[in-house]
Amino acid sequence: MTRFIVAPQWQGSSSSRAMQLIDGAEAIAGDLPRAATTVLEAPPEAGDAQGTAVHRLTALVRMRERIEDAVRVSDEIAVVVGGDCGVALGAVSAVAGDDLAVVWIDAHADLNTPASSPSGAFHGMVLRALTGEGEEPLRLDPGIPPARIVLAGTRSVDAEEQRFIDAHAIAVITPGALADPDALVDAVVATGASRVHVHVDLDVLDPAEITGVSFAEPFGARTADVVASIRRLRERLPLAGATLTEFSPSSPAAAVDDLGTILRLIGALA
Ligand SMILES: NC(=[NH2+])NCCC[C@H](N)C(=O)O
Fold this sequence. Notes:
InterPro entries: Ureohydrolase, Ureohydrolase_dom_sf. By secondary structure, this protein is α/β, with parallel strands linked by helices.
């Protein structure tokens, strides 16, 4: 049975409303099967950059450890529910190995380095950190090779992120291309990996399909396409783990409007 680990981390987001990520995590937690769900506590304090370019680094390091420990408690697949996208660091580091691919279903590439980040927000650096680059306590060692990464639904990419994508010829599946459910599985199979971690940032969806995200980008993916692509992928490769992140509802009533969509995605991952 799939486990759920709820990680209400907000310190990786640069949004002025980042603390709504706590509300989002709690709203999702309320709809998960209680016996299969562990709710972690995020450090209450913002945390300190410790002289680095990563805002709130100390809080993020503590959450990385908490998430990693919670995933390692058992061999059952864990779906880690954020919180901001930075929760993927602990989730992936608990299951990493040289046979693992990472699928990043997100409007953003999240491939900034601390030096290239326009915001200092770790959620925009986390995929790069998974490849082994970044500040010492917030990166994987050894990292996931860029050839084992597949981006999907991506449509907001900073200059250094594009350079990294081009330099490593990372596969990028556009939101429209996800309408063919084989597009994602074909790209992942081409990496040669035998297990896959699937990361979903809710902002991959078109703004017509979800309201509770802080970094909305136009021309996004359809929920039905993301769900079908994940299901098709899972017919071919075993899931090593998953992350579902960035739910940031403005009110409890607004949360209810999005929960049906979110539960469809969780259903595909669980
Ligand atoms: N997962 C996200 N919402 N990422 C937003 C990142 C925005 C911008 N590219 C940055 O690095 O700050």
